[in-house]
Amino acid sequence: MTVEQITDRIKIYKQLGLKLFTTSSFQTHSTVLLHILSKTDNSIPVYFIHTGYHFPETLSYRDEIARLFGLNLVNVYSATAKINQRDANNRLLFASDPDLCCHLNKVVPLEPILAQYDVWINGVRADQGEVRKNFKVEEKARLGTIRFHPMLDWTSKMIYDYLREHKIPHHPLEDKGYFSIGCEPCTRKWDLNNMDGRNGRWFGLKKTECGLNTELVEK
After folding, report:
1. Whether residue 210 lies in the annotated active site
2. Which of 142, 104, 146 is nearest to 122 (CA)?
3. Percent of the chain whose pLDDT exceeds 90
């Protein structure tokens, strides 16, 4: 979709009286959608799922982009305290059961938000993995919410060109060799010989999604 098409679709949703929100991990590529939304309607809530495991640089970048774009930023936290996120051997779940860790810290906190809104503007791209390439521009999410994927057909080059044109600052960890940035315990620097796209996000875990794009899609 072009920027104009994205803007027009959002206006149509609002004319229909639908309530919209978006989520963002505040990586550099995420800021393109946030910039488009800020120019269309900066009152749309931008939910940041604060797992408690983010890099300090991600939190600083989040605040910088929110201020620069004038975003309606809302932080969301897990209701399960970290001390209770342990397995039977007292190991933290990110080390022993990363799927459950993501479920508790990302999926569960978002469920009540889905119940409040009609449209979830989601920035997934088809070139980011097997799960995502099978999405349509509109999908049904849990609790009757529509998932709107305006960036689905965007490529890395399109993202880069937009960032450069609008002089959007990049995530500071990119300069240190991080390409796909998630929670600190599971993220590793980019290795050209051993990684593709998002593998640095869950290094060594044979994992490509956190559950937001699998558990919260209506089957």
Report:
1. yes
2. 146
3. 55
Distance CA 108, CA 105 (A): 7
Instruction: List own/partner pairs for 154-158 with CB under 8 A and 24 or more apart.
Output: 154/32, 154/125, 155/125, 155/127, 156/29, 156/127
Question: Which residues lie closer than 8 Å to 189 by C-beta, 6 or more apart?
Answer: 176, 177, 178, 179, 200
Contact 102, 133 (CB under 8 A): no
Element at 147 (helix H, strand E): strand 146-148
Nearest to 1 by CA among 117, 105, 125: 125
Of 102, 183, 186, 210, the active-site residue reads: 210
8 A C-beta contact, residue 45 and residue 74 = yes
Tokens of 114: 């889905």
Instruction: Report whether 182 contacts 201 (CB < 8 A).
Output: yes
What's the whole-model pTM score? 0.85
